[in-house]
Amino acid sequence: MKYSIAFLFFLVIFTNCELRKSSKENVAQESPKTPKETVIAYLAATNQFDLKAAKEFIIPNKDNLMNLETLKKMEKSIPDDQKARFLDKEKNAEYYEKEITDSTARIVVSPKEVAMPIEFNLKKVKNKWLIESVISL
């Protein structure tokens, strides 16, 4: 009986860990299909200071790479206990799809806590939406 309880306990923990792992893998494998989804995914990555993931959503031009480098420096200057306040900020924003064509898009994001909207200009490259530029309005 004692071993049965221990076995069930480990089985529950193992199953729970596997479910969490598989759900994270599913999220990582799902690529954005629309310009808005691309912007949300990019903001989620930058809010988590995941530069590798954020780089997947940009066209690697001078300005975009400089933005990621600035984010990298910012991450180093913020104490770890303060980084959590950036998580999920992309969920507290309004997204406006201003212009969308077959190959370009313009999405304006208005964070609820900041009065300065941000414009994302996207371009479709090999059937994938990528951020070409980010402009504070």
Helix and strand run: HHHHHEEEE
Query: Count of helical segments?
Result: 5
Low-pLDDT runs of 5+ residues are: 1-29
What is the number of strand segments? 4
Briefly, what is this?
With 137 residues, this protein is an alpha+beta fold. It has helices at 2-29, 35-47, 51-55, 62-77, 80-83, and strands spanning 93-100, 104-111, 118-125, 128-136. The chain is 48% helix and 24% strand.
How does this structure look, described?
The protein is of the alpha+beta class and 137 residues long. It has five helices and four strands. A four-stranded antiparallel β-sheet has the order 1-2-3-4, covered by helices on one side. The protein is globular. The model is unreliable at 1-29 (pLDDT under 50).
Keywords:
disordered N terminus, globular, alpha+beta, 5 helices, 137 residues, four-stranded antiparallel sheet
